[in-house]
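subagent[fold] <- orchestrator: predict structure for attached chain, return tokens only, no commentary.
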Amino acid sequence: MEERKDVSSNTHSKNVSNNVNSNEYKPLEYKSLENEQHSIQDIPKSNPKNNKEQPAFVKRVKKSAVFFMAVAIVGMIIYSMGHPSSYVNTTDQAADALKTHMSTSLGVGTRLMSSDEKYVGGDLTITHKSNYDETTMYIWDYAAEDGDYVQVVIDGTPMGEPFMIKNKPISFKVPTVGEVQIIGTRDGGGGITYGVYYEANSTTYFNGMDVGGDNIYTLIRE
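subagent[fold] -> orchestrator:
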């Protein structure tokens, strides 16, 4: 009987040992899983805040790109007005302008001829619908820069001394209702010819005169 008890005791010990071993294994497995879970949690995740900020940053970049592109375009326009091309415009619009001495399609500073051909124009009436008190007038030599000089007089008041007209336009602020007189003071050769553009009616006039002559532009609001 005692041997049975001993055997039973041994058997029980083995079972307990096995149970202990079995019980110990599970916590180890669970602990290992916890470690794995902890390791997974330690992996850095993308910050939702950053995800929200990135589109805003992209928008700012796009806005900046559009802004600088607009500035570049405006700069090119200003540069082209201040530095007109030296080539002579030979398009159909230019040919028509030489015949009619006016144009609503040619840009400021358009050059129609490579050399001067004497042309004596006349006075013109500028009608427009502008509500502004002033408008901008541009004047330039539409042929060769040969030393022609003119003087601008607005409502009887000279706007400075006579100056040489060049292919590069010069601008003046003039009243939308009043008279602008352009006086020819010096002929560099071939007659005094010039182009004048009024923003009030978006029209260019190609005019001319002799030394001492003048062209009067009467601006009237319709």
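orchestrator: received. Logging for downstream: The chain has three helices and eleven strands. Residues 15-81 form one domain.
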